[in-house]
Fold this protein.
Amino acid sequence: MNTEEKTSRSNKKHKKIIFVVILVLTVAVLADFIWSNTYIEVKKLSGSFKDLPESFDGCKIIHISDFHNEWGLDYYERLADKVNDCGPDYIFVTGDSVDSLFPEVDRSLKLMERLTDICPVYLVLGNHEYALSEEDRTAFVSGAKECGVNVLTNECATVTRGTDSISIVGLDNMVNDAEVLAQAKEDFVILLNHYPEDCNYFNVSAEYAGTHIDIDFTGHAHGGLIKLPFVNGLYAPGQGLFPQYVDGAYDIGGTTLVVSRGTGNSGVTQRFSDPFEIIEYTLEKDK
């Protein structure tokens, strides 16, 4: 075999290797893309708190955020089934249940119907609800209330379990937040709020109001949308490129900030290595 033939065979071999590598990478990317935009992960978290009343020790919360009336075939049914399988005591929904770009209020209300059949549901609005037409926003809020959802629009609710009570505050603006937080009279305070980047602000407001926030449940960040090696997230609304708060639990000045990656996509945005999730959060008494 002469040199020219050897070179030709070597080139063909290299081309085959390159083709196989490209094919494998393409399949891997497509598989990740499909997984990230269809699979629902159940993330299990817990927190230990000195101020937690005894009756709430072991209480299980399911945290849902950013549903965006996700359109997948019977997706809301699959999501509700996942929640039901967790056996929660309470469900917290932290905004953007309806997508403002492609609103389907009825689909979001079907999810609310399923959730309220499971256990008590507490919900706050996000930026997408406020970007809806007044007609759609009113239809969603009134429909959710008719389903039995506790919609907290800058309000404080007292939740009783056994002989003990806690305060749940729902905030969706920064206008009268201190006034609302001042209504939290129980020793243990949970905040439902759409925006993780506002945790420090609400901590200051709580201190001004003479109270505190034990846990702040939020969403909005969509997990940073694209996760790459050594990159926690590429972009999150409200935080920009390489966001700080995208996924999981953080200690912010003594407050446990819980951020959900969300259960849907906004408009035409898609995810990579960032699957949908619900958070199963267990409250524990620090003894």
